[in-house]
Amino acid sequence: MADEEGNGLEDEQSFSCWEQLLPDLLAQILARLPFEERFLSAPLVCKRWNRACKEEPHCWTSVDIEPWFLARVQQDFWWEFECDDQIKWIIHEVVDRSRGMLQDLRTMHCCDSSLEYIAHRCPKLVSLGIRNSLRVTDSSAMTLAYKCPLLASIDISDCYNISSAGLEALGRHCPRLIRLKRNMLRNSDRIERNKLLARGDDDEALVLSRSLRGIKHLEMKRGELSDEGLLHIARGCSRLEYLDVSLCAKLSAKGLDAAAGMLEKSLKIFIRPVLPPKQTLPDLLWVFFQ
User: Quick one: which of 142, 152, 165, 283 could link to 176 by a disulfide (CB 3.0–4.6 Å)?
Assistant: First the structure.
């Protein structure tokens, strides 16, 4: 009986401690929850938590929607076109709750209207990830560049409707931008089916070398980058510390070595593509007929 009374007293004291927390402190604690729990579950606990999740911007300074989205795709067998409207609504809701305090956002399948909504209402945005956003174009990317000058990191991988013009705007209007992920899949089959993919990575590399000279982390995996484009990057982006060009089939050992030599002072991590062994056709035929 005494143990039960003791446990009940401890529960009451624990509850009173939560009740005594200031709203902004409670919001900062709730901000550590995964997105789905913060967005759907925590507001149902009590009225105080509901207010913190919906009215305290400190609860929404950093948001990662990507794990939740990927889980939904696996569980509910979502197709991309089926989730666009829901992703759009979620992004708008998160931006509204942040009240201009949003600094870090990771999502997928964003569209032009959502990106412009973010740009106009999140001036403190520092890090943004919108990979696999096929409906994002240069227009909204330029708006983002104009409205979010504090941007330091962006992931626009597999955003095929953003061209070198969008990259140039980001470089010119976001002087703090030091981290760029631009991993693309530009194989010939896809380019033949969609002319929008026919832009070469070398053009983008030239823009990067001119507009993003202070960049320190660059990823351009799986693309059509050639030795010429890689050397443009090496000449213009002399502060690079991390460079990933894996799975870029057009690069040669000579070009890779030349770029590494030009970036020798700053480059700490250089992830190269795995090149095929140096064997000529006559050599292979000679081995075959032995």
Answer: 152
Confirm if 153 and 189 have CB atoms less than 8 A apart.
no
Three-state DSSP at 177 gives: coil
Contacts of 73 (CB under 8 A, 6+ apart): 83
Burial degree of 124 (CB within 10 A; 0-12, 13-18, 19+): middle
CB–CB of 42/53 below 8 Å? yes
> Tokens for 208?
């990067």
Top mean pLDDT of 37-46, 82-91, 111-120 is at 111-120
Task: Report the sign of the C-alpha dihedral through residues 120, 122, 128, 132, in that order.
Answer: negative
Alpha carbon distance 65, 137 (integer Å): 21
pTM value is 0.83
Q: Is 213 exposed, middle or buried (0-12, 13-18, 19+ CB in 10 A)?
A: middle
Q: Quick one: tokens of 247?
A: 């799975």
- pLDDT, one tens digit per residue, over 151-177 is 999 999 999 999 999 999 999 999 999
> Residue type at 74?
Q
Which listed CATH number (3.80.10.10, 3.50.50.60, 3.40.50.620, 3.40.50.1000) goes with 60-288? Answer: 3.80.10.10
> What is the spatial distance between Cα 162 and Cα 154, in angstroms, rounded to a whole number?
13
Which residues make beta-bridge pairs with 104?
Answer: 62, 127
The CA distance from 114 to 91, in Å, is 7
Cβ neighbours, 10 Å, residue 84: 17
The closest of 92, 153, 91, 165 to 127, measured between CA atoms, is 153
Size (the chain), residues: 290
Contact residues for 283 (Cβ-Cβ < 8 A; gap 6+)? none
How is the chain split into domains, by residue range? Answer: 20-59, 60-288
